[in-house]
Amino acid sequence: MRRVTRIALAGTATASLALALSACGGTSTDSSSSSDSKGGHKGLAIAYDVGGKGDQSFNDAAFEGLKKAKGEYKYETADVEPTDGETDADKTQRLVSLAKQGYNPVIGIGYAYGPAVKAAAEKFPNTTFGIVDDSTVEAKNVADLVFSEQEASYLAGVTAAKATKTNTVGFVGGVDVPLIHKFEAGFEQGVKDTKPGVKVLSQYLTQTAQEGGFSSPDKGKTAAEGQIEKKADVVYAAAGLSGQGVIEAASAKKVLAIGVDSDQYLQEALAQYKDSILTSATKDVAKAVYNLAKSVEDGKPESGIVRGDLKSGEVGLADSNPAYKSNTAIQDAVKAAQEKIISGAIKVKTS
Question: Which of 44, 153, 169, 328 falls between 20 and 30 A from 303, CA-CA?
Fold first, then answer.
């Protein structure tokens, strides 16, 4: 059950088709109804984080939520790409543009949208805004869509500890920020609790997102190759698009990778590497995006902190790889750890 504070909207934004999105990155829209056909608003719009659509991870998960909402409500949707070197003002303009056109809700995908969501929400108090992975924006018309990533990462650590033959595993974080520290902390704790003698090699690709930590597969590949040279035979990446490079390196060196956010074993663009993708630590960004759209349609928009965790089923490990699913030792260990986290017997660290 999601812990949600709900408020009623006073109204919806007036649709205006005059403002183009081209000034702040490309967009793809899908028009199947007029802007007023669903309660006076066009429908759902999302603005991607760095890496954009096609990252096979975080942004693509958000797009799946948009597709589900569009299929159910038959309204127009928009999904907008970021631009290189953009500022908070650029992000704000992008969200304002979407709200002016009548989209409701408007969702910023990623914590970098914090200042932009705050500013846009103030300008459009009758539009519901969402932000994924940030809990600092406090407004009646904003839903902070956050997850307990450390819990899924703990299970990834349990898996890595059970799978390693060299007693060395790796963690590659995209950007050195508190959000990614949660992934690292949970992973390391899961490894150590399962097999204390296993060494965890950790590396962050960049200090800021602007330097490409979430959008540079080459950086991810180089980092993973370095860890594999130091005997890591299971590598876990929390690095957005850069994680593709980690998976590529693991496949080339015949070791195992653990994906993130989406079930990367099933991603078409990663199909050639899938035998190396043991599992993925998932968070259901798609469900969070869809649920916010549904709440607006229902006239009871989500507001405040909306958290997905292991107990709600919105974080966890993917079991699409038969080699993972059929490994009894891993499955038993993961199940036991999951039960203890949900019961509170295990408290997972966030830093």
Answer: 153
